[in-house]
Amino acid sequence: MADEDTQQPVLVIMGVSGSGKSTVAGILAGRLGWDLEEGDDLHPPANVEKMHSGIPLTDEDRWPWLESVAAWIREHTAAGLPGIITCSALKRIYRDRIRGDHVVFVHLAGDKDIIERRMSARRDHFMPTTLLDSQIDTLEPPDPDENTLVVNIGRRPVDMAAEIIDRLGLTAQPGSSTSGSDHPAASSVPPPGDPLTAPDTPPEP
């Protein structure tokens, strides 16, 4: 367990689909060696099918998914391990389900036109561009009392990642994936599962 004064956070990389969450998270994980989880991979198959069909998710659809996200976060904070997880976290009530000590929300925010171009360029993703308006309408930007860092998109993802590291004073953590796994950004929280890897410079989605 890390000391209360030195424990580094779990970062929740949040924002609407197409804002670059996976790309920025992958770069951060590669540079810091922290555990990485793609929040979309925690959706149950029924949610994925709805989104693939262009049907917006309801709150009832999201609760089981958010509990899975929260469980991943709790495993890390309880073990004193930093980590990075992507999660849209569009509403405050969603963020309330996953917030806690040593959890920082990193909101990737920007112009709708930029996000639309990014979504149109993506391949092999189940979220169609037709759902962007629904996500923007649903988004409740974090309030000042939430532990949030806002990062503007529209720049190179490597520059966005560098800003996050600098502003939060993040460093590679002894005992995290850097020294606890042969695969940087693979989960080091017991019990071990299938290793998840993230390249240092993942392709722009």
Count of discrete structural domains: 1
Radius of gyration: 16 Å
What is the number of strand segments?
A: 5
In which range does the helix fraction lie?
25-40%
Distance between the ends = 35 Å
Order of helices and strands: EHEHHEHEHHEHH
Shape: globular
- What's the overall average pLDDT, rounded? 81
Task: Describe the protein's architecture and organization.
This protein has a single domain (10-180), classed as Rossmann fold, CATH 3.40.50. The protein has 205 residues and is of the alpha/beta class. Mean pLDDT is 81; it is low at 178-205. Strands 2-3-1-4-5 form a five-stranded parallel beta sheet, sandwiched between helices. 40% of the residues lie in helices and 12% in strands.
The gist of it:
The chain is of the alpha/beta class and 205 residues long.
Give the SSE map.
Blueprint lengths: L9 E5 L6 H12 L2 E3 L7 H8 L6 H21 L3 E4 L5 H7 L4 E7 L2 H10 L10 H7 L9 E5 L4 H12 L8 H4 L25
Parallel strand pairs: 1-3, 1-4, 2-3, 4-5
Helix pairs in contact: 1-7
Search tags:
globular, alpha/beta, 5-stranded parallel β-sheet, disordered C terminus, 205 residues, Rossmann fold
